[in-house]
Every structure is written in structure tokens, then in C-alpha cells.
Design goal:
The protein is α/β, with parallel strands linked by helices. It is built from 14 helices and 22 strands. It has helices spanning 23-33, 50-54, 56-74, 89-112, 156-162, 169-172, 189-200, 220-233, 326-342, 371-376, 392-396, 425-438, 442-446, 456-476; strands at residues 13-19, 39-43, 119-121, 124-126, 131-134, 137-146, 150-152, 166-167, 181-185, 204-208, 236-237, 240-248, 251-258, 263-268, 270-273, 277-279, 313-315, 355-358, 363-368, 381-387, 403-409, 415-422. The strands form five sheets. Strands 1, 2, 3, 4, 5, 6 and 17 form a seven-stranded mixed β-sheet that branches. The chain has a five-stranded parallel β-sheet with strand order 8-15-9-10-11. Helix 1 (23-33) links the parallel strand 1 (13-19) and strand 2 (39-43). Helix 1 runs parallel beside helix 9. The termini are far apart. The structure holds flavin-adenine dinucleotide (FAD). Flavin-adenine dinucleotide is lined by residues 19-25, 42-45, 49-51, 55-56, 59, 123-124, 147-149, 169, 190, 280, 284, 317-319, 324-327, 329.
Length: 477
């Protein structure tokens, strides 16, 4: 028996219900709308998407402020002396919030331009395979898209001990001004970006990481190089095997120890936990469904269709815990929404080549297959490298730090992947991802035009090194 008394204006049955109105849910809505108007778009939290409200955009706004400060600090090497650097924390945060609100407002306006009767505000929970409870309202849906996003994964013991001195990324973007000191835990993309941005804005920062990883990098030589580079811009301790945190008045005292014998004893105003993200699946009532899951409780779904098992339920965006990136969330939303709309005529869609960028200093990028994936595969591959220390244009602009590694298959000489920490990585990442997706050979890339003097000439150096590695491999076989 369906309960439709909670909100009589809401529909009692629809063709497609989409849980979550983030980037994936909005893309799913647009795609499903091409098949039906009987849609419910459900949202428990604020509109505006994680990306615009507390993710990609405000983090890049904070980084832009730090880059402006960095340009002032770097000016002296060019003989330019702009005077004493002053950072107005209130003005920095005001611009971050104002621009963030503008971005989120534009997204919100889009949602509000869609038919109001399709928008349901409340927390959705499965009562059975086809019935959702939304704050007491029961909705029957022929097909359902789960696009519930993710949330920071923070040890419960830290929350209990540190109380309001423990921050997650969302908190940073609502600050009125910059704090004096922050301990950042985690050297994934979010931890690295925020730690370096805050340090660049004059906040005393210490970065701690249990692992020796740096964002998405997997190549051991690049990781070694990258840790040194990051350590030059922010105090960083990797391989931390013990962290003791204790609330200390209006701050937090920390004792940490690394596998390499480093020790940290200190006190910070805040701890920012950037210790990974977990999909928002708890509280969704999945136990009331027959959806297939693996032994660790993860939903079994097809990346090319978004379909969970052979069911009428699809999943998209961070909720599937695949790559947790904006462009992937939007693609997955489009695929899942289209297939939910056309069900049972479910169609697989080719996925784009993986592309991941960290707006660190220097920037980090991974395009195509990673070094670790190639190592684990049975593909024989060669590696071509360039170090940017002596790269012409990079020296001209004073950003000659870092390295690029390219990987190509021995048999086909086709570019398979790339990893980099270095100048203009966000742009090289695109060139490389597009080449990898097209299936370019190393020779075809070398035959392409390179202007002078540009950072891309560094890519040509790496391609030449890769070509000679491939030739050496052929000569040796
Ligand atoms: C600090 C930070 C920086 C980032 N920077 C980048 C970047 O530079 N580039 C990049 O590509 N990616 C970046 N990302 C990742 C990117 O933001 C996410 O991959 C993307 O926003 C995920 O979109 P989504 O639609 O899956 O989730 P969301 O946008 O979070 O949407 C999920 C929605 O579902 C709602 N919801 C959850 N459960 C329910 C329920 N039961 N009922 C109803 N509604 C529910 C939530 O309230 C939310 O609105 C960053 C993330 C963070 C946190």
C-alpha cells in the first residue's frame, strides 16, 4: 500500500526516478527527459552540486588566490619587486564565496527552470525494488537512477576527539577569513590542493599522509620526484604510521611518526581531514532491494551502461566509487539517464580515456593507462621521460620543475598512457588524453607540429626518448 499523504502534490508513480540532483543526476535528468516526462528528480540537500558548491570550483578559486600570491613571491627572480606581500584573508574568502555562490546559483537556476512537479525535495530510500520512500511519501518508479554522490570518509575517533576543530573540505569554503594554522591529513588530490593553496596564502600548514602516494600518480620515479617537489612548497610527511590527535583548547595537538623515522610534534588551529571519500549509499535502503552486490557490499554494475546487474536500476557519478571526477560523473549520468529512459533497450556507450588532473604546484596529471596498470597487465611497454629542469620555455617562465613520463606498447608503438608532475600539466594532459583516445602512434605524435619556444617541446623530448626506447626494444628482440 503506497503512502501518498506526505505531499499530495507529488506523483505517486513515475517512469524514471533519479535520486540526487548533483552533476550526475542533472545529466541523467536531461537524458531521461528525451524519453519521458514522467520523471521524479529527488534531492535531499541543497541544489547547486558538490562541484560548484564545495568541490571543483571553490577549490580552484582558493588556488587562484594562492597563485596570485605565488606570482608576487616569484616576481623577484625576474627583477620585478612589487613590494611587501600582504594577504587579506577576509577579501580572499569573500571572493571565493562570491564566485562560488555565482557558479552554484547558475546551476540552481537551471534546476528551477525544469518543471516544478518533477522536483521532489527529501531523502530517498528504497522500500523495495520499485518503491522509494521520500520523507514519508511513497513513490513507485519503473526505473531508478542512483546519483547520490559521495562524502568525506573521516575516522569516527577523530570526530569524537576533535569536535568542531575537525574540518572537511566543505567547511573551508564557508570561512570568513583565513586561519593561522591547519594540519592537513591526506595527500590525494583534495588534500594536496588545499594544503598548498592555504600555505601559499600564508597559513601555516603541515601535510601528513599515511601513504607515499601523491594524487593519482603511480610511477615510482615520479612519485619520488613529486614528493620532493611538494615538500619544497609545503612541510610534508609521507608514510606516516602513527598519528595521535588530541583536542587542546581551541586547537589540536598532534604527534606523528613516519616509517622513515620523521617525527612531528605540534599544535594547529584546525585539522582538515582529506582522507578519501565514500559513496553515499548508507541510508539508501539497499538492503530492501534485490540489487546484486559483491562480498564487500558494492553494487555490481556495468560501466558502459550504468545498469546494476540486469535490473531496472542504474548508478552514476561518485555513488559508484569509480573515478569520482566531474566529467566522469556527467558522462555516467548521461549514460544512466538515457538507459533508464529507453529501458529495456539498454545500450552500452564507449567511455572516454581516463584523465585526471591535480591543481597542485606543480600540477599533476595522469592520462590513459597508469604505470601501475601497465605493470599489472601483460602489455610490454617502454617509457620515455623528460625532466623539465632544462626545458627552454619552462625556464623562461621560472617553472622548470618536474617530469613527464610517457608509456607506449612495444608491439604497436602506440601511446598508452602518461603521468606527470610539472608545468602546465593541465594542458599537456588534454593533448595526451586526446592522442591516446585517437590511438596515435609515437611517430604520428612526433610528426605533429610543435611551436617554439613552448612547454610542449618538453613533450616532444619525451616522445623522442620513448621512440628510441621502442627502437632499442625492437633491436633487442
Ligand atoms: C574539494 C573537491 C574538489 C574537487 N575538484 C575536482 C576537480 O577539480 N575536477 C574534477 O573533475 N572533480 C573534482 N571533484 C570531484 C567532483 O566534484 C565530483 O566527482 C562530482 O561533483 C560528483 O558529482 P555527483 O553528481 O556524483 O555528486 P553530487 O554533486 O554530490 O550530487 C549528489 C547529490 O545527491 C544528493 N543525495 C545524496 N543522497 C540522497 C538521497 N538518499 N536522497 C536524495 N538526495 C540524495 C546529495 O545531496 C547531492 O546533492 C572535487 C571534489 C571535491 C570535494
Amino acid at each position: 500500500m503506497l503512502n501518498n499523504t506526505a505531499n499530495p502534490a507529488w506523483p505517486s508513480d513515475v517512469e524514471v526516478a533519479i535520486i540526487g540532483t548533483g552533476s550526475a543526476g542533472m545529466a541523467a535528468y536531461r537524458a531521461a527527459s528525451r524519453h519521458t516526462t514522467r520523471i521524479a528528480l529527488i534531492e535531499a540537500g541543497p541544489y547547486g552540486t558538490t562541484c560548484a558548491r564545495v568541490g571543483c570550483m571553490p577549490s580552484k578559486l582558493l588556488i587562484a588566490a594562492a597563485e596570485a600570491a605565488g606570482a608576487v613571491r616569484a616576481a623577484a627572480q625576474f627583477g620585478v619587486r612589487p613590494g611587501q606581500l600582504a594577504i587579506d584573508g577576509q577579501a580572499v574568502m569573500q571572493r571565493v564565496r562570491d564566485e562560488r555562490d555565482r557558479f552554484a546559483g547558475l546551476v540552481e537556476a537551471t534546476v528551477h527552470s525544469w518543471p516544478a512537479e518533477q522536483q521532489l525535495r527529501g531523502h530517498a530510500r528504497f522500500l523495495s525494488d520499485h518503491v522509494l520512500d521520500i520523507n514519508g511519501h511513497h513513490l513507485r518508479a519503473e526505473r531508478i537512477v542512483i546519483a547520490t554522490g559521495s562524502q568525506p570518509s573521516v575516522p569516527a575517533a577523530w570526530r569524537a576527539e576533535l569536535g568542531d576543530r575537525l574540518l572537511i573540505n566543505d567547511d573551508v569554503f564557508s570561512w570568513d577569513t583565513l586561519p593561522a594554522s591547519v594540519l592537513v591529513i591526506g595527500a590525494g588530490a583534495i588534500g594536496l590542493e588545499l594544503a598548498q593553496a592555504l600555505q601559499g596564502l600564508g597559513v601555516q600548514v603541515q601535510l601528513l599522509s599515511r601513504s607515499e602516494r601523491l594524487g593519482p600518480l603511480t610511477d615510482p620515479l615520479l612519485l619520488e620526484h613529486g614528493r620532493q617537489l611538494v615538500g619544497q612548497s609545503v612541510p610534508a610527511m609521507f608514510g606516516v604510521d602513527q598519528i595521535d590527535l588530541a583536542r587542546d583548547g581551541m586547537g589540536v595537538s598532534v604527534r606523528a611518526h613516519s616509517r622513515f623515522g620523521q617525527r612531528l610534534v605540534g599544535r594547529f588551529d584546525w585539522v582538515l581531514a582529506a582522507t578519501g571519500r565514500q559513496p553515499n549509499l548508507d541510508g539508501l535502503g539497499l538492503e530492501s532491494t534485490s540489487l546484486p552486490r559483491d562480498e564487500r557490499g558494492r553494487l555490481l554494475y556495468d560501466r558502459s551502461t550504468g545498469q546494476i546487474g540486469n535490473s531496472h536500476v542504474f548508478i552514476a557519478g561518485d555513488a559508484n566509487a569509480d573515478s569520482m571526477l566531474l566529467h566522469e560523473a556527467a558522462d555516467e549520468g548521461q549514460i544512466a539517464g538515457d538507459n533508464a529512459g529507453r529501458f529495456p533497450d539498454v545500450r552500452p556507450r564507449p567511455r572516454r580515456v581516463p584523465l585526471s588532473i591535480v591543481f597542485s604546484h606543480p600540477q599533476i596529471m595522469v592520462a590513459g593507462a597508469t604505470w601501475a596498470e601497465l605493470q599489472q597487465s601483460d602489455v610490454g611497454f617502454a617509457c620515455g621521460r623528460v625532466d623539465f629542469a632544462d626545458q627552454g620555455r619552462s625556464r623562461v617562465i621560472g617553472e622548470n620543475r618536474g617530469a613527464l613520463h610517457l608509456y607506449a606498447a612495444h608491439t604497436s608503438a602506440i601511446l598508452l598512457g602518461a603521468e606527470m608532475i610539472g608545468p602546465k600539466a593541465e594542458h599537456l594532459a588534454h593533448l595526451l588524453a586526446w592522442s591516446i583516445q585517437r590511438g596515435d602512434s609515437v611517430q604520428a605524435m612526433l610528426d605533429s607540429p610543435f611551436y617554439h619556444p613552448v612547454v610542449e617541446e618538453g613533450l616532444r623530448t619525451a616522445l623522442r626518448a620513448l621512440q628510441s626506447q621502442l627502437e632499442r626494444g625492437r633491436a633487442g628482440s
